[in-house]
Amino acid sequence: MIGAFKMFIFGYFCYAFFIATYFIQNKVGNPCKGYKPYNTGDLLSVLISFNMGMMMLFGLTPNMQAMIKAKVIGHTIFDVIDRVPEIRDHDKCTEKFEIKRSISFKGITFRYPTAPEHVKNVL
After folding, report:
1. Tens digit of pLDDT per residue, the chain (123 long)?
2. How big is the CA angle at 39 (ends 34 and 40), to the nearest 5 degrees?
3. Whole domain around residue 12: which residue ranges?
4. CA atoms within 13 A on the CB side of 119
5. Is residue 98 part of a domain?
6. What is the biggest distance separating any 2 CA atoms in the chain, rounded to whole angstroms?
7. Is residue 102 domain-resident?
8. Angle at the Cα of 80 (from 74 to 85), degrees rounded to 5?
């Protein structure tokens, strides 16, 4: 991307020098100065202003890189948020669960359905 910017800048400099020498040699009138002929000062002012504009664009490149990284990271985050889990509740699950005293687990085992066979039970 930076190579494209450099090519654009140097291409513009070549074009500006070509047009400026044509305008200066043929004494083309400058409409901004009441149709007085172009001079080297006009050429330099155009080149310096273009150079300043390009410096501002180069200053934006780190911000553009950060925005691209943020977009990629945001995409991965939304992929996780929008993921549909493979484990589903069955129809007989309770909506409400209240504990009155205490809970004790005896003889209960659990292994995730998506886990490989060689993995130990979680519970």
Report:
1. 678 877 887 888 888 888 888 888 888 888 878 888 888 888 888 888 888 887 887 787 788 888 999 999 999 999 999 988 777 777 777 777 787 788 787 888 888 888 888 888 877
2. 145
3. 2-81
4. 10
5. no
6. 101
7. no
8. 165
Q: Which residue has the tokens 């493979």?
A: 86
- Does residue 108 fall inside a structural domain? no
Give the pair of three-digit tokens for residue 102: 């205490």
DSSP string, 60-110: HHHHHHHHHHHHHHHHHHHHHHTPPPS----TT--S----SS-----S---
- The DSSP code for 117 is T
- The amino acid that residue 32 corresponds to is C
Rg (Cα) of the chain, in Å, rounded? Answer: 35
Burial string for 1-32 (b: 16+ CB within 10 Å, else e) reads eeeeeeeebeeeeeeeeeebeebeeeeeeeee
Q: What is the DSSP letter of 39?
A: -
